[in-house]
Amino acid sequence: MSDSHAAHRFAVVWRLVVAIVLVSALLGSVTTTIAVRSAFSVEYRPLPDAPLTTAFVQGDSTWLEVPMGHLGDPSNTFWQLFVRSPSTGGWRTATPPGVADNGGLVMADGPGGGLVAGFLPSQDLTFSPLSVTTDAGGVWTGAYFPQGLLSVPDALGGTSAGVHLALGRKGGGSLLEAARSLSTWRPVTTAGALGRSAAGARCGVERLTAAAVAPDGDPLVGTACRRPGVVGLFEIVDGRSEAVPVSTPPAMLRAPVSVLRVVSTGTGVAVLLEGSGQTGQTVLVAGWISAPSSAPVLSASFSPPRGALVATGTTPGGGVFVLLQPVGKGPPELVEVSAPQGTTPAWDVLPTPPRGTLGAAFSLGRIDAVTVHYSTLTDYALDEDSGTWTRSEVIHVPIQYGSSD
Amino acid sequence: MTGMGRGLSAHSSFVVSAFHHALWLQFLVVLLIVAVLAGVRSFMRARQFSAVAPGSAETSGADRPVPEEPTVGVAEPVAHRVLRVGFGLIWLLDGLLQGQAAMPLSLPSQVMQPAASSSPMWVQHLVNYAGNLWIDHPVTAAASAVWIQVGIGFLLLVVPFGRWSRFAGAVSAGWGLVVWVFGEAFGGIFGQGLTWMFGAPGAALFYVLAGVLLALPTRVWSSRALGRWLLRAMGLFFLGMAVLQAWPGRGFWQGQANPHATAGSLTSMVQGMAQTQQPSVFEALIRAFGQFDAAHGWAVNLFMVIALVVVGAGLLSAHPRFARWAVLASVVLCLADWVFVEDLGFFGGVGTDPNSMIPMTLVFVVGYLALTRAADVPIVEPLRIRQAFRSWHTLSPSYLLRVAAAMGACAIVLLGAVPMAAASTSSSADPILTEALNGVPVQEHVRAPSFMLVDQFGRPVTMSSFRGRVVALTFLDPVCTTDCPVIAQELRAADAMLGSASRRVALVAIVANPLYRSTQFTVAFDRQEYLDNVSNWYFLTGSTAQLTQAWRRFGASALVEPAGAMVDHSEFAEVIDQRGYICTILSTDPGQGTQALRLSFASLLDTEIRQLSTNPRSR
C-alpha cells in the first residue's frame, strides 16, 4: 500500500470520526431538551386515597394513629395507636398486640362502645386480623376477617349498636358485614356489582374508598367515580344500592370526585370529598348526614395549596380536619371545618403547626399536633389564645426494630 | 435475587470449609484422571514400540510405518499460538480466582447483582435466574466454576493446532458467553454509564471473541485478512467508545470540586475501587490517580477521548505502519487503565478475572501479528480427529502426549460442568445453607411429650394420634407476616420432595400466638400458604392453657411483644420417629436470608425424614 493511499484513507477516517461526533452531539442536545421538557410537563396528581394517619373521636376519648420507626423502610415502620381521655390526662400507647402492623391500622367504633382495629396485610400475610378493645386499649381480643382490608382509613365501619362493616380486597373491592359476631362476615356488595347497579352506573365506580353505618343502620359505602362531577356515595338497602343524593359543589363539577372519608360521629356521619377544580387544583368539601335517607349538608369548598394530604380525622363536635404538607419545604397546614349549625360551614385555617407535623388530633377543648422521630412521638398543644404550639409531651415507644425483617 | 446471600457471612466457615473440601476431593479426581491418561499413553507407546520392534509378531511380513512426527498441528501461526496460550493462561488464572473463599456466598450479591443493577429488567431477570441457581447450590456452583475454567485453560494450553484447537476455542467461547451473559450482565452494554474505562463491553466478551477466532477454520489463519478485520473491528470499537466518553451529561467531564461536591463518574469509580482490600502499593497508586482525576477531571477525560480516537483511527487504518503504533499505544493505554482505573480487577476477595484490559490487549497484539506474520509458516490441513485415532500407532510421542493431555482437560471441564448442569435441574436448594446459618441438626432420643389439641378442622389430636408415622413438628403463628409463611412453604416443599413417602409422614405445626389461635386463623393460614390441600398437614390449636402447656413441654415459647411487633416465638422443628421419639431438632429460623434459604431447609428436612422412614432408630 502506498503512503499517499494510506494518507487518503486516514483522512477519510478522520472525517468519519468528526461526523460521528457532530451527529452524536446533535442527538445528545435534542434528547436532553426532550427529557427536560417532559420533566417540566409532569402534572401534580392528587392522592388517590386518604392517608392512614388519622384521629378518631369516640365519646370523650380521642384515638390517634401514626406511623413510627424508620419511615422509609416499610419493614421497620410500625403504626402506633394512642388514646387520650379526660381520665388519662395525656396520650397513652394503645397499639393492639399480637400481629405485626407494618401494613398499617384502621379503626372504627366497636361493639359495646369499644373500638375495633384492623391490621392491613403486609409482607406475606394476606388477610387482616382484627382486634377489639372495650377498655380503651387496656385489653385487646383477636377477631377474624377473611380478607385483606383495603388500604383506606375507613376500611372498617361500625357503631356501638352492633352493625359492623369492612372493605375487603377480593373481587376488586368488596363490602362485608359482620353477621353474628366480629368473626363471622357475609358479603354485601362488590365494586363490580355496585358499578353495574343503576345508581353505580351513573358514577362509573372506580373503586371502593370508605365504609360506615348510615344513621338508619344501613351500610354506607363511598367510592371514587370515573364520571366527572358525580359523588359516589351509596346506601345499601335490602341488598339494593341507592345513591345518596349529593348536589355536587360547583367547584367539583368538571373532574372526577373521590369520597375520601365516611366516618360515624356522635351526631351522624361525616363525609370528606376530594375533587379537582377548573385549574386542576385539589378541592375538598366536607358533608354531614344526620338523618336517615337525607342528603348531606355540605361545607364550603376548600382549595389547599398543592401538596400532599398527611392526615385526616374527626373533631369532638362531629367536624372534620385535614393536615396538609404543601409541595416544597413549606410548613404544614392544618384546616378544620365544624359540623353545620345553621349556616354553610366554612374551613378554618389553624395556626401553622410545627415543621414535620405528621398527625393531628382534636379532643374536647384541645388541639394537638404530633411529630415523629423514629420511636419518639412529640406532642404539641395549641394555645388558641396566642395561636402558638407548645410542646406538651414526649413519648418513647419501645419499637422492636428488625422484628418484621 | 433480592436479599441474596443475606443472613450468611460471606466467609461462613461452614460453607468455606465445605467448598475447600469439595475442591480437594475433585482435585483427587483430577489426579486420578491424570494417572489414568498417563497409563493409557504409556500403554499406547508400548504398543507402538512393540509394533515397530524388529522381529515382533506385528511387523513380520507386514509393512508397518515407523512412528514419526505426524503432519498434524506442526505449523501453528504465531498469532494463533499467542491467542491460544494467552487466553489459556487467563482462564487458568480465572479458575484459580474462583477458588477464593468468598466465592460460594458472595459472587451473586457482590458481582452478578451489581453488574446488572443498571440494566433493564429483562437483563436483571436473566442474571437473577443464574444468581438464584448459584445461591441455591453455592458450593457446587463455585467448585464447578473453578474446574470448568481450569479445564478450559489447560485445554487451550495443551491442544495441538488443528481440530483439537478449534474444539477448545468453541468450548472457550461457549463458557465465555455464559459468563458474559449471566456473570457480567452482557458487560453492562444495556445499562447506564457504559465506558471503555470501566471495562465495557465486558472482559468475557473478549474471551468469546478469542474462542471464536480459535474455532475458525485453520485456513483462515493463513491470510492477513483476519488481522485486518480484527484491527478494524477494534478500531471501530475504540471510536464508538470515544464518542461515549465525549458524550456530555454522563459525568465524565467533571472531577470533584471539593470533598463535599458530587464526584464525577470516573472519580467516584476510582474512589470506590480504592476502598477494595488490596496491597498498599496498589491502593496508593489508585488513590493518587483518584485525587488527580478529582482535580483535573475535564483534562483527564479530554486526554482519554483524544487517545481513544487516535488509537481507534490507527487501528481502523489496518496499515502495518500505523497499526504498529496504534497497537503499541493501545497496549500502554490498556495497561494504564488496568492499573489506575480497574485496579487490576482481581482484588477484594470476589475478583473473578483480571478484567477487560488484559484480554483486550491480547486481541490487539494477535490482530497485529495476524496482519504482519500470517504466512510465516505453511499451514497444513491436519488430520481429522477420527482419522488420527484410527492411525494412532503412527502418531508422534509429543502429539500423543498433547492429545492425552487435551482429553484430560476435557475431563476436568466435565468434572465441573456435570455437577453444575445437575444442580441447574434441581428444584431444591443445598441443605448446607440452612446448616451454615442455623447449625447442623441436633440428634436427640427422648420421648415426645403428649398434648391435647385440635387440628384445623376442629378434630381432637394427641401425640399418640401420629404413632406409626414420622412427624415433623414445629411452631407457627397464623398471623405472622414474615418467617412463618416462609417456614410453611419449606414444609410444603419437603412434603413434595418426599413424594409417595409422605403418606407415612405427618407435618404438624402448633399455633404460637396466644391472641390469634382460633381455627379460623389456622384455616386462613392454610389457605394463604396453599396447605389446605396437603393431606398430611395438621395445624393444631387449643385454649390458651392447652397451648401454653404444649409450648412448655416442647421447650418452646411465644411472647407477645409491644408496639406493633409480631409475636416472638421459638423457631425450631423436631423430627419424631414412628414410635414417638424425638430424633432430630432443627432450627427453622430463616434469618434475614430468606431467599438464600429457599428450599434449603426443605432439603434438610426431607433428608432427616427419609432417614427415619427407612431406618427407624432403636432405643
Number of helices of chain A: 3
CATH topology of the largest domain in chain A: Methylamine Dehydrogenase, Chain H
Query: Mind telling me the CATH superfamily name of the largest domain in chain A?
Result: YVTN repeat-like/Quinoprotein amine dehydrogenase
Tell me the span between the first and last alpha carbons of chain A.
70 Å
List low-pLDDT spans of chain A. Answer: 27-47
**Number of discrete domains of chain A:** 2
Strand order of the largest sheet of chain A: 4-3-2-1-21-22-23-24
Q: Choose one word for the global shape of chain B.
A: flat
Helical run tally of chain B? 20
Low-confidence residue ranges of chain B: 1-6, 57-62, 66-74
In sequence order, what are the helices and strands of chain B, one letter per element?
Answer: HHHHHHHHHHHHHHHHEEEEHEHEHEEEEH
Major sheet of chain B, described briefly? Answer: 6 strands, mixed
Shape of chain A: globular
Radius of gyration of chain A from CA coordinates: 26 Å
| Average pLDDT figure of chain B | 84
* Total domain count of chain B: 2
Characterise this structure.
- The complex is a heterodimer of chains A (about 400) and B (about 625).
- With about 400 residues, chain A is mostly beta strands.
- Chain A folds into 2 domains: about 1-40; about 55-395, 7 Propeller (Methylamine Dehydrogenase, Chain H).
- Chain A has 3 helices and 28 strands.
- Chain A has helices at about 5-40, 190-195, 200-205; strands at about 55-60, 60-70, 75-85, 90-95, 105-110, 115-120, 130-135, 140-145, 155-160, 165-170, 175-180, 185-190, 205-215, 220-230, 235, 240-245, 255-265, 270-275, 280-290, 295-300, 305-315, 320-325, 335, 345-350, 355-365, 365-375, 375-385, 390-395.
- In chain A, the strands form 5 sheets. An 8-stranded mixed sheet of chain A has the order 4-3-2-1-21-22-23-24, with no helix packed on it. In chain A, strands 13, 14, 15, 16, 17, 18, 19 and 20 form an 8-stranded antiparallel sheet that branches. In chain A, strands 5-6-7-8 form a 4-stranded antiparallel sheet, with no helix packed on it.
- In chain A, strand 17 and strand 18 form a beta hairpin.
- By secondary structure, chain B is α+β, with helices and mostly antiparallel strands.
- Chain B has 2 domains: about 15-230 and about 345-425, no CATH class; about 430-615, 3-Layer(aba) Sandwich (Glutaredoxin), CATH 3.40.30.
- Chain B is built from 20 helices and 10 strands.
- Chain B has helices at about 15-50, 80-95, 105-115, 120-135, 140-160, 165-185, 205-215, 225-245, 265-275, 280-295, 295-315, 320-340, 355-370, 385-390, 395-425, 430-440, 485-500, 520-530, 545-555, 600-615; strands spanning about 440-445, 450-455, 460, 470-475, 505-510, 535-540, 560, 570, 570-575, 580-585.
- In chain B, helix 17 (about 485-500) links the parallel strand 4 (about 470-475) and strand 5.
- Chain B is flat.
- Chain B starts with 12 loop residues before the first helix and ends in a 5-residue tail after the last helix.
